[in-house]
Write a structure and sequence with these properties.
By secondary structure, the chain is α+β, with helices and mostly antiparallel strands. The chain has one domain: Pnp Oxidase, Chain A, CATH 2.30.110.10. Helices cover 27% and strands 32% of the residues. The chain is built from 5 helices and 8 strands. β1 and β2 form a beta hairpin. α4 packs antiparallel against α5. The longest helix has 15 residues. The protein starts with 11 loop residues before the first helix and ends with a helix.
Length: 200
């Protein structure tokens, strides 16, 4: 992914917050084939790794056996910016260049796969604690008999590439105008994108 200086994450807290808030991404393992295996999945960010589970028949496990290294790609909070929105004051709106605002983070690392029931239960506890912070109804260990149908995945975070393309190449006045127009339009993704536009 191309990351220009004005699109880079300002600090670790920025990309961590984004990844946590999204909670869903595409897990890719190259294996030894010409095309990587790509799996859409929910996950949880825990310190220096991510955890999740997948069904045992998932083809990604064969790819991980060949190469136990993967990428988790997370993207979101995107919104289309019409070219006319780039104009303020007496600027000609017909000369504006349209774009898309979005955030994207790619986490790369080594992967450990587990079939151990207690390790799987711990991964499920982490996932449930993230999506059901009130505690849910019961501990996942009550379903231990069904664990044979899934496998747990733990990927270390060895490298992070983060991009936040929210008009960082424009001055504060133009960024503020784009954010105001996003809020006024209020379509899918508009408010989330507006919240990410740097206003200072």
């Amino acid at each position: 992914m191309l990351i220009r200086p004005h699109d880079k994450a300002t600090d670790e807290a920025q990309w961590r917050s984004f990844v946590h808030d999204q909670g869903f991404g595409h897990f890719a393992a190259s294996g030894d084939g010409a095309v990587p295996v790509l799996v859409p999945t929910q996950f949880v960010l825990v310190d220096d790794h991510v955890v999740f589970h997948l069904a045992k028949p998932n083809p990604v496990f064969a790819a991980l056996e060949a190469t136990p290294h993967a990428v988790l790609s997370v993207a979101g909070d995107w919104a289309y910016i019409p070219g006319a929105w780039k104009a303020i004051g007496d600027e000609d709106p017909s000369l504006g260049i349209p774009t898309t605002y979005y955030g994207a983070v790619q986490l790369t690392g080594s992967v450990t796969v587990t079939d151990d029931p207690e390790a799987i239960a711990e991964i499920l506890r982490s996932q449930l604690a993230d999506v059901e912070p009130d505690g849910g109804l019961q501990d996942p260990s009550v379903h231990v008999r069904q664990f044979k149908a899934i496998r747990g995945i733990r990927m270390s975070i060895d490298d992070v590439r983060a991009k936040f393309k929210y008009g960082g190449n424009a001055d504060a006045e133009h960024r503020a105008a784009a954010a105001e127009r996003l809020r006024a339009r209020g379509g899918p993704g508009d408010l989330a994108a507006a919240d990410r536009v740097p206003l200072d």
